[in-house]
Amino acid sequence: MKRLGILLSGRGSNFLAIHQALRSGQIADAEIAVVLSNKADAPGLTAARALGLPAFHIPIAGRTPEQRDLAFVAKLQEYAVDLVCLAGYLRLLSPAFIAAFPQRILNIHPSLLPSFPGLDAQQQALEYGAKITGCTVHFVDEQLDHGVIVLERAVPVEDDDTPDTLAARILAEEHKAYPEAIARVLSGDYQVTGRRFLKR
């Protein structure tokens, strides 16, 4: 049984999609071991506790990024986590965090990377005039929204879209893409060649 650690900062909708995928069997032989947040009032933490999952706030005030991340790493290791899933966790990870879980940290981003990294990806897509955007699940490395891509799903940009309407349609695809990508990674039936994630 593989053990997932979830990091979130907000509502945790992708966390809930992952939880549902585990319950339905879309992600097999796995469980959520622990949910962590840098924000004590994150709705995702409340949701995790309501589901009976171990869920903790890791304070960050007065800590360096490395001190903060080592506190997260310690809790993830306490719960023997195999794969870390960032589900709306709005902090860059330090090299110390990434070194603790090499090629075992996933993130989801609301664009088709490498286009529109960073914050406000939907606004970036609209300002650029993109006709297609979407979401990307990727491994996390030390650069922003840069690691090897596991899975992408495309979303057309409509002429009357706003950042909010576009974000809502992308989010619906995120809820499908993230569980699928997690299942692929947990299967172990892949290899990474250069920057390419290849199914065996």
How do the helices and strands line up, and which of them pair or pack?
Blueprint: E1 2-8, H1 13-24, E2 30-37, H2 43-50, E3 55-57, H3 65-78, E4 83-86, H4 95-100, E5 105-109, H5 121-128, E6 132-139, E7 149-156, H6 163-187, E8 190-193, E9 196-199
Parallel strand pairs: 1-2, 1-4, 2-3, 4-5
Antiparallel strand pairs: 5-6, 6-7, 8-9
Helix pairs in contact: 1-6
Please tell me about this protein's structure.
The structure is a single chain. With 200 residues, the protein is of the alpha/beta class. It folds into 2 domains: 1-102, Rossmann fold, CATH 3.40.50.170; 107-200, Rossmann fold. The protein is built from 6 helices and 9 strands. It has helices at residues 13-24, 43-50, 65-78, 95-100, 121-128, 163-187, and strands at residues 2-8, 30-37, 55-57, 83-86, 105-109, 132-139, 149-156, 190-193, 196-199. The strands form 2 sheets. A 7-stranded mixed sheet has the order 3-2-1-4-5-6-7, with helices on both faces. It is globular and about 50 Å long. 37% of the residues are buried.
